[in-house]
Model the fold of this input.
Amino acid sequence: MLLYITILGFFITAILAINIRQSNKANIYLIALVLINNIYSLTHYATIYSTNKYFVAIMIVHFTPLYMLTGPALFFYVRGILTDDYKLRKFDFLHLIPAILFFINVSPYLFWDWNSKLVFAEKVISNTSEIINIRTLFLSGTFNFIIRPFFGFMYCIITAIMLYKHQSINKFSEKQTTLIYTWLKVLIVTLFLIYFSFLLFSILSLESRSYSIASINGFFLLVAVLLGLICLNSSLFFFPNILYGLPQLDYAINQKLEKNTKSNISIEEVKKQYKSFEISDEKLLLLKYKIDKYCLSRPYLKPEFNLTVMSSETDIPVHHLSYFFNEYLQINFNTWKNDHKIDFVIELIREGSNEILTLDALSKQAGFISRTTFFNAFKQKMGITPSEYLSNID
Done:
């Protein structure tokens, strides 16, 4: 079962990586966190259950330095979500020192010849406790074995304190904010369960010098670790919106909103138009105003217009735009873009442009790359084809 859970974890990692461009960039640390935890899980499977010496030789030591990055990855992810800033600071690289030290410590094994690694793998297959007898430079195999779950356990405490302080200072009740706070708590508790349980099991294993005895005495600890992995690897299926992060929409705009703006947009009108927009009125009005102002120049008519271009030209992060369209407007970006293009085509038709231009020419003026895309978008918005629309006008 452990193997199947680990495979699921790798699948989740792939999904996260594919969606990273349109999600909060802090998710890159979540990708690292899930990936490393599942490599750790696969290593555990190789060490305990596998009888393939080649597989064991690859897994048991080579990835050890990575395991010291689970704590920093958790820390960077939680901080990045809370601050909406995924970038590392100068002193953040201090978090990487343990991983570097571990790499140096296990370097003798890393540079062993392949045959020597296979011999050691056979010893581990015969007796799991042999893994702590790995040749190292300055930290013993026993220390290596214990420090990995302890390190993750300590980072769970650190991030829990950080989350508590942030939530106590920032009182929010919006749907997405509540979801993110809940998700972060679930993530930290889940990892705490995994690391603490595995830490206790590691201590039992070292005391008994026998995995079979430790697995009997620490059966419930292994079950806790297994449940934690299931929760970690399946959570995105149930809460996909966590990829957007917190909707912190206080963007700087060149011209501040004043009481008497040309658009004369009222809070009530915005609420009526976007009923599901559950952030504050001020942020809602600011974001809508900025996007509406941007659309006055009709950037969507450019064939190369996409979400990345819009993000660059408005200084609104891609994941905020994605969240705005998908969750607030309940429409995907491409449909929103094509609807604006169709509105432009209809405007041209009403002005009589269809008398001198073909439908293909009109679609190209609207930025449609292909005739098929234009016809499909027109029918989706208007319910009829462009030809039927023209016939009705005539």
Q: What stands out?
A: Confidence is low (pLDDT under 50) at residues 250-263, 270-278. The CA atoms of residues 339 and 380 lie 9 Å apart. The two ends are 67 Å apart (CA to CA).
